[in-house]
Amino acid sequence: MAKKLRLKASIKRRSKKSMLVILVIIFAILINLSIATMLIFKGPSETFSNLIVSTLMETRRGKAIVELLFSQEELDQIMAKNNVTITNEITNYTEDEFIIDESVKDKIDIIDVSGDTFKGKLMIVYDPSRIDLGVNSILDPENISGHFVEDYVSFLGGIGGINAGGFDDPGGKGDGSIPQGIVIKDGELIYGTTETYDSVIGFNKQNRLVVGQMTGQQALDYGLVNAVTFGPPLIINYEAQPITGTGGGLNPRTVIGQREDGAVLLLVIDGRQTTSLGATYLDCIEIMLEYGAMNAANLDGGHSTCMVYEGEIINNPVSLYGEREVPTAWIVK
């Protein structure tokens, strides 16, 4: 009996010691994680820290993490030093129409693009009159929700397309039903108001891409036939917009641009994957300039980034669940 009692006491002491050791190990791990986190976000390399912060600020979960580590004032300062400088410049107004050679009117090129941190696809559409806008309310007026890019392509009888404008995303649970800012479809303002002021991206009656900060009324006055809201503008009137610091971090991107000959450039960059971390705004500007863009703007990216061609998604969306439902999409007919 005495031996059993001693054995129980010994086991109890060992259990307490083991538990204490486990708690010490857990505490040490937490301390090390805390130190590592502080070194990453507030360490000796300001450039690296800013890159991480600006990257995470464009993700829902990442934004929640950095908001625990920084005050809103600190985050505003970091983003102001690591982004695209927004100007009041707008694409020059012109009523000149593009003269598209008959030999290229049906031509579409799909090009693989890559950089040190990213891979993506560039679609070149030689005839800008083939670009149309898919909008959720037009696709399904009785049940206005977001739809997949393939749905817009199919509905409009297109051959390809990319996601377009942003949408309200309260708590990261938005379903693509409410577009951000304004949406113009077939010359009518169907979302937003004439007073709404934001970054607008659209095509006018002459199939010219117009980008810049403007009100809904200005967009109509510019003769925009189809337009969405997002940004920032990346190239305006052949001039790349100023980039500060890390230029928005590494993320999936969707960009639209246009060359002097009228050809439309549709770019998607994969991101948040081991094979493609993502691109900065500067990366996107450099690609657009390399392929001759005179105007270009950033569209909704992240989980929304998607390119469809001939009935298939040809990039690698970051979402584990595949393509995301969006309120608008640029369609190639």
Could you characterize what this model shows?
The protein has 333 residues and is of the alpha+beta class. Helices cover 29% and strands 26% of the residues. The protein has helices spanning 2-42, 46-56, 60-69, 72-80, 136-139, 149-155, 216-221, 281-290; strands spanning 108-114, 119-125, 131-135, 160-163, 183-185, 188-191, 197-204, 209-215, 224-229, 233-236, 239-240, 253-259, 264-269, 293-299, 307-309, 312-313, 328-332. The strands form four sheets. Strands 1-2-13-12-14-10-11 form a seven-stranded antiparallel sheet, covered by helices on one side. Strands 3-17-4-15-16 form a five-stranded antiparallel sheet. Strands 8-7-9 form a three-stranded antiparallel sheet. Helix 1 packs across helix 2 (46-56). It starts with a helix and ends with a strand. Mean pLDDT is 86; it is low at 27-39.
Give the helices and strands, then pairings.
Layout: H1 2-42, H2 46-56, H3 60-69, H4 72-80, E1 108-114, E2 119-125, E3 131-135, H5 136-139, H6 149-155, E4 160-163, E5 183-185, E6 188-191, E7 197-204, E8 209-215, H7 216-221, E9 224-229, E10 233-236, E11 239-240, E12 253-259, E13 264-269, H8 281-290, E14 293-299, E15 307-309, E16 312-313, E17 328-332
Antiparallel strand pairs: 1-2, 2-13, 3-17, 4-15, 4-17, 5-6, 7-8, 7-9, 10-11, 10-14, 12-13, 12-14, 15-16
Helix pairs in contact: 1-2
